[in-house]
Design a protein that fits this description.
Blueprint lengths: L1 H15 L2 E5 L1 E3 L5 E2 L4 H10 L8 E2 L1 E4 L8 E2 L9 H7 L16 E8 L5 E3 L3 H10 L12 E5 L3 E7 L2 H10 L1 H7 L1 H8 L7 H17 L2 H18 L7 H12 L4 H5 L3 E6 L4 E4 L5 E13 L5 E4 L7 H7 L9 E2 L2 E4 L2 E4 L7 E7 L4 E4 L6 E7 L1 E5 L6 E4 L3 E4 L5 E5 L4 E7 L9 H17 L7 E2 L7
Parallel strand pairs: 19-26
Antiparallel strand pairs: 1-6, 1-23, 2-5, 3-4, 5-7, 7-13, 8-14, 9-12, 9-13, 10-11, 10-13, 12-15, 16-17, 17-18, 18-25, 19-24, 20-23, 20-25, 21-22, 21-24
The structure holds zinc ion.
Length: about 475
Amino acid sequence: MEKKEATKSQQQQQQQKLLLKLRCSVQNYDWGLPGRDSTVARLSSLNSNSPFDPDKPYAELWMGTHDSGPSFLHASQSVAITLKSWISNNPHVLGHNKWGGRDLPFLFKVLSVGKALSIQAHPDKELATRLHKLHPDLYKDGNHKPEMALAITHFEALCGFITLKELKAVLHTVPEIEQLVGAKNANLVLQTSDQDSEETLKSVLQAVFTLLMSANNERIADAVNRLKSRLHKESEVRQLTEKEQLVLQLEKQYPADIGVIAAFFLNHMKLNPGEALFLGANEPHAYLSGECVECMATSDNVVRAGLTPKLRDVQTLCSMLTYKQGSPEILRGIPLNPYVNRYIPPFEEFEIDRCVLPQGETVVFPAVPGPSIFLITFGEGTMNTGSPKGQVVTEGDVLFAAANTEIKVTSSASKLHLYRTGVNSRFFQFDNTIIAERVLALRHSIERGFNHQSVFIFGLKPNS
Ligand SMILES: [Zn+2]
């Protein structure tokens, strides 16, 4: 009996140390980069071992369990098994599943953005539940959808409202806005001051932005056309501002769209590779160009209002926004060791690690209490969960790692780039003492200077 128990627990341990290769779904939305320029096309083609079409747009690679783009086990069986159904049959791989259900709490993606995505926001949990109840056809689940984009290449986005001071300057220099919202309402903005309460500032911004977004199509087309010809004329005698150049570019992509003018209200964010932006509930945003990895809660709830041929829900969007003003925070990651940076957004569902491993080096991802997904974006190496040989991994490989699996990654002939997403470590509160110990050890190892020949375990050198 005891022997049987022991074998069972050994089996379970073995099962828990799982690292499964996945075949992932691709989305060819029309804003994607054409195959020849798209990281999504290159990675998905390597992932599925099938060629890509150089002229077709490749927008998103989905890694996870969402029904609209499921990942499959890379097994030799004739029947494809989705990761979702496999997890549902093997729920122990989720570890301390405090988020409930038999599913991953996050969805991991790669995005190749060729032209702007819609101006959008994602509802909080309460609003998502309400929208889903009212319009289940439009809002397909009752979950919120916090997101984080981590730039692979130079990446641009519109995100959050500019400050009121900046908006006043915009109203002075962009007469087309007054044309749409009326002089009286534009004056409302111009008369505000920093002494006004936050509530007043937000309600003035909400009033003006709602008027702008609700203008009828004819007036929008007229205002956008005037804006375009004015800027073309002015560009002959002065250098256009970056925002003006962006607006002209958006006009080419979405002629006569209110989003072209709405862009003046939003912060223009430019990320370098390795920088990240997180988007909380009810914050307006639009990705503009570049490539990134993106992680989000498993949901597809999007409220759109501009730069889109899809359905717009202007009233819902304008009433849900927080109208917070000012530039959003850019995350640059916390170095866990010389090769791995961790990006921790203020949401429970996920975090992302970015690993750049030089040729012939090894790094250890310690066991964590939740599941992870790994994506190799460059190079070749091995991933080892304790067996003598380990799995060979190359560019385009996506792997699911069960909870409580320690993974040793070694690069081979070239350097290796990979990303890991997992449940936000802050979610596992009981690990706080372990985190504190690791932070202390990391500080000690920084004080002593890193030894690049060593194997690092999140800042813990062997024997330290
Ligand atoms: Zn979004």
